[in-house]
Amino acid sequence: MSSVTKNPIVWKGYAIHDNKKYRDFKVIDFEPKTAGDYDVDIAIKYCGVCASDHHTISGGWGETILPLITGHEVTGIATKVGPKVKDIKVGDRVGVGAQICSCMECKPCKTDNENYCPNLVDTYNAKYPNGDIAHGGYSTRIRAHEQFVFPIPDNLDLADAAPMLCGGLTTFSPLIRNGAGTTAKKVGVVGIGGLGHFALMWAKALGAEVYAFSHSPSKKEDALKLGADHFIDTSNKSFADPLVGEIDLIVSTASNVEHLPLAEYLSTLSVHGKLIYVGMPEDSLPPIKSQQLSSNGCFIGSSHIGNKKEAIQMLKLAADKGLQTWKSVIPMKDAGKAIQAIEENTIRFRTVLQQDIIEY
């Protein structure tokens, strides 16, 4: 007899019911996915608010499963583990990011690229192969496959760790995979916000010489505090001229790309340098001609969150270096205010929701 059983318990979460009223969160009861041998149940303490949450609940990224409980930067305490779970035990401090399951059988899954599984399950607004709905972290609890449950170092605050599990990992993975601090000695970061502030911290901690690019001169002081060695004001139309051919890797976190000076950024790259997009705006990227890539043989690419090994490495780096998320912590009932702050661009640089639902 299979040890997979249907769990009859009911948990609670803050959900939206209408994409036109996407800041109107109401507490609902929901049933978690069917419990599996490799699943871990987590009592949620904190959940970060990601721009992805806004894109999803507003309908900007397409159809949503309503009612929708969003949130994919979760930290808390493991309360139950399946019989085949190896590395997590009840009582452990753990977290879950933007992915909650994958097929475990394809080439990406078997080569530490489970974050590129063609059949991955997102942490919310998604369905499992059996039809169960994946509910996010604006809730009391979450159930996840152990491959997507990350142990949190004891000396890393759970509130700090939460936004690292999406915003942090989304920038850490492309830095690591493209040699930041080793083969990529000079690293640029475009945008100083929820993603960009992590990228600056990671790049500096990995040993790179760091260039912060921003069209807002007011962000210079923050950029330097976060680890930038140089601040480049892109509101100056000739900003790229002194940097032509200098930078090995650029990670772009920009969420507004309508006026992004793409050709200028590409010109700053060294031979075969890379520009990696991790910001996921709803608009298309600016047009580019192949001739603008040929002078230095540069590459344009992207990246999707990160794998478990990278998540563990990132959390250890943060703990060892004493790196902290720049954040505000507010009650989970104020999720609507956090979403509004994303729209108004008033966050410096992440918002973290603290669990406040009385479960029983």
UniProtKB/TrEMBL annotation:
SUPFAM superfamilies: GroES-like, NAD(P)-binding Rossmann-fold domains. The keyword Metal-binding applies. One of its GO terms (molecular function) is alcohol dehydrogenase (NADP+) activity. It is an enzyme of class 1 (oxidoreductase). GO terms for biological process: alcohol metabolic process. InterPro entries: ADH-like_C, ADH-like_N, ADH_Zn_CS, CAD-like, D-isomer_DH_CS1, ER, GroES-like_sf, NAD(P)-bd_dom_sf. Its cofactor is Zn(2+). It comes from the Eukaryota. Transmembrane segments: none annotated. CDD domains: CAD1. It catalyses: a primary alcohol + NADP(+) = an aldehyde + NADPH + H(+). Belongs to the zinc-containing alcohol dehydrogenase family. Homodimer. This is alcohol dehydrogenase (NADP(+)). The lineage of its organism: Eukaryota, Fungi, Dikarya, Basidiomycota, Agaricomycotina.
